[in-house]
Design brief:
The protein is mainly beta. It is about 10% helix and about 60% strand. The protein has a 7-stranded mixed beta barrel with strand order 3-5-6-7-12-13-15. A 4-stranded antiparallel β-sheet has the order 9-10-11-14, with helices on one face. A hairpin with a 3-residue loop joins strand 9 and strand 10. The radius of gyration is 17 Å and the shape is globular.
Length: about 240
């Protein structure tokens, strides 16, 4: 079986004294996620461009995905934890040409300055420093995010039996007045369940939590994911698209 790390040509990028080697190799990480319905009208208001269309799971309803990750071993970076609040979207240009579905990130708290700097300066990711911690029981894994001394959000996902899967994700970000589109290739032990329940969240008193409440996310997840061992390639932005 061909490995996603085979036959790679690398490019070094220096930002603020840190050297990043792309595509960035994530050798080992844990990720869990859950998606929650939200009114499409509320979601559209937080997207930066009308060319980004929320993916509707049913008429009038989009989703907000909450993703928590522990990056254990990374090429050219120190380990860090991350929490993503993202909207599944498609991009449609004026000539009606669409791109594959991807994610537009609203907020990405992370635990190291290196991760903040690389993500913001290279990709335009909305990263900022926070405390992102994990705990687990026999049946669930929980992630808690605190920033500026306040609780922001907590996510709990039910553990499930995993199998090997490979998949591709795309992210959309804003940088320099353009939309950037980046590609993530991943493979490893994963379980994705499109059933009701399995994921839950709790919002705190941080100002971002107040903004998330305004999105009126449902309390019952429509998808949850548990992936204890993944590796991935994060490519530099491959497209710059008009807003």
């Amino acid at each position: 079986m061909e490995d996603i790390f085979d036959g790679i040509d690398f490019e070094e990028v220096e930002v603020g004294g840190f050297r990043f080697r792309f595509p960035l190799r994530y050798f080992d990480y844990f990720v869990m996620a859950a998606a929650f319905p939200a009114p499409v009208g509320k979601v559209k208001k937080v997207l930066p461009s009308k060319k980004l269309k929320p993916v509707e799971t049913m008429p009038g309803m989009a989703t907000i995905a909450l993703i928590a990750a522990e990056y254990h071993v990374i090429d050219s970076m120190d380990p860090y934890n991350e929490f993503d609040v993202v909207v599944p979207v498609t991009y449609q240009s004026r000539d009606k040409v669409s791109r594959p579905p991807g994610y537009f990130a609203l907020y990405i708290p992370v635990t190291t300055e290196q991760a903040v700097l690389g993500g913001v300066e290279i990709f335009g990711y909305p990263r900022f420093m926070a405390n992102v911690s994990f705990e687990e029981s026999a049946e669930t894994r929980r992630c808690r995010v605190q920033a500026e001394g306040k609780d922001l959000i907590a996510l709990e996902v039910t553990k499930s039996v995993t199998g090997f899967q490979s998949y591709d994700n795309y992210t959309y970000t804003v940088k320099g007045g353009q939309l950037l589109r980046a590609h993530l290739q991943a493979e490893g032990q994963n379980s994705t369940n499109y059933i009701s329940g399995g994921g839950s969240y709790t919002l705190g008193d941080h100002p971002i939590a107040v903004k998330l409440r305004a999105l009126e996310m449902d309390g019952t997840s429509v998808m949850h994911r548990y992936a204890p061992q993944i590796k991935a390639l994060l490519h530099l932005p491959g497209e710059r698209l008009p807003m």
